[in-house]
């Protein structure tokens, strides 16, 4: 099942609508202020959750009146942010692929935390993408092939999530690598470009943050 999560970070409304037109989602979850997008777009989410400290009370009341929506309300004093709770819910619903919109923005602490949450899905063998109008972010721990025709922008960056990532080999890129160890205090993997029809990232041990950027 392919699931969409819309959370309360910065969200380009036109981009989000376009993204939904490009992807057919089987299930949709609104996390806290993420309800704003669904109200404005006239789209009914399947489930809504959060402590609703940043949600518009009128919009929340409007969704609460819909008997087809499942609600989960949490106390503000909790150990997990709303995006984590939404991802846990998506995995509990047996999602095989999850896309998160609204997970980036001006709160850098929240964004960094959300990037790390992608690992929660990876541990369950579920593909998870953090997407905005300029970037598509995911974690990789095994060989990954990128097609130039389907890339998300012109630039590909690889950033170690673990202390180090060994055996990194890049083929089909402008800046190739061969059996290299990427450490945590280096910018070597930033702003590469695909120059062949397909490009491959191979690694032996560790986890990489793969960022495709349109800027």
Automatic annotation (TrEMBL):
This enzyme's EC code(s): 2.7.6.2
Sorted UniProt keywords: ATP-binding, Kinase, Nucleotide-binding, Transferase
Domain Thiamin pyrophosphokinase thiamin-binding: 150-209
One Gene Ontology biological process: thiamine metabolic process
Molecular function per GO: ATP binding; kinase activity; thiamine binding; thiamine diphosphokinase activity
UniProt-listed PANTHER family: THIAMINE PYROPHOSPHOKINASE
Entry protein name: Thiamine diphosphokinase
């Amino acid at each position: 099942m392919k699931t969409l999560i819309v959370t309360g970070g910065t969200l380009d409304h036109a981009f989000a609508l376009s993204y939904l037109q490009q992807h057919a989602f089987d299930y949709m979850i609104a996390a806290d202020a993420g309800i704003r997008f669904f109200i404005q777009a006239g789209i009914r989410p399947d489930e809504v959750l959060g402590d609703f400290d940043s949600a518009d009370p009128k919009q929340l009341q409007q969704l609460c009146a819909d008997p087809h929506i499942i609600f989960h309300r949490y106390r503000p004093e909790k150990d997990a942010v709303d995006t984590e709770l939404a991802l846990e819910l998506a995995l509990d619903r047996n999602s095989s692929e999850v896309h998160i919109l609204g997970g980036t923005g001006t709160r850098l602490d929240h964004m960094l935390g959300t990037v790390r949450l992608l690992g929660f899905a990876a541990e369950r063998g579920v593909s998870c993408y953090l997407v905005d109008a300029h970037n598509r972010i995911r974690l990789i721990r095994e060989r990954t092939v990128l097609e130039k025709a389907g890339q998300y922008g012109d630039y590909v960056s690889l950033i170690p999530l673990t202390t180090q990532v060994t055996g990194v080999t890049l083929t089909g890129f402008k800046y190739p690598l061969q059996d290299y160890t990427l450490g945590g205090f280096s910018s070597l993997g930033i702003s590469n470009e695909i120059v062949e029809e397909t490009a491959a990232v191979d690694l032996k041990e560790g986890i990489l943050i793969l960022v495709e950027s349109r800027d």
